Automatic annotation (TrEMBL):
It holds the Pfam family Ble-like_N. This is VOC domain-containing protein. InterPro entries: Anthracycline_SecMetBiosynth (IPR052164), Glyas_Bleomycin-R_OHBP_Dase (IPR029068), Glyoxy/Ble-like_N (IPR053863), VOC_core (IPR037523). CDD domains: SgaA_N_like. Residues 3-126 form the VOC domain. It comes from the Bacteria.
Length: 127
């Protein structure tokens, strides 16, 4: 079985990105000065006391709306539409509204957002 181990979301402005993710996902991103890795500033995304990924500045890749794979973050703690309502207020954009994955099977719903840095991020809810 393959499981997600880690992800990095490239950002241009770490403080702005931290504010965006804290607002949209009602979480607390912890900022570390971790210059040993790629000479970068890192904001850690924490879920249930487990490190799940980073917002990373000054690494050899850049935010993108069109290139690379799409990272989907699960938002089952509240309705997907509620999360989307916070996106624009936080400096992002809704690219794809709440959409069923498969109307014939209970696979949940997805949406796409553009974060404050220009990254296309997918959101998933099983509801």
């Amino acid at each position: 079985m393959v499981r997600l181990a880690w992800f990095e979301i490239p950002v241009n402005d770490l403080e702005r990105a931290v504010s965006f993710y804290n607002t949209v996902f009602t979480t607390e991103v912890v900022i570390l000065d971790k210059r040993a890795n790629y000479g970068s500033m890192v904001g850690l995304l924490i879920q249930s006391d487990t490190l799940i990924g980073t917002l990373t500045q000054n690494i050899p890749y850049v935010p993108s709306q069109r290139e690379g794979c799409i990272l989907y973050l699960n938002v089952d703690d509240e309705p997907l539409q509620t999360v989307l309502l916070r996106v624009e207020a936080a400096g992002g954009q809704v690219l794809l509204p709440v959409t069923p994955i498969d109307p014939n099977r209970p696979l949940g719903h997805v949406a796409w957002i553009l974060d404050s840095e220009g990254n296309r991020i997918g959101l998933h809810s099983s509801q």
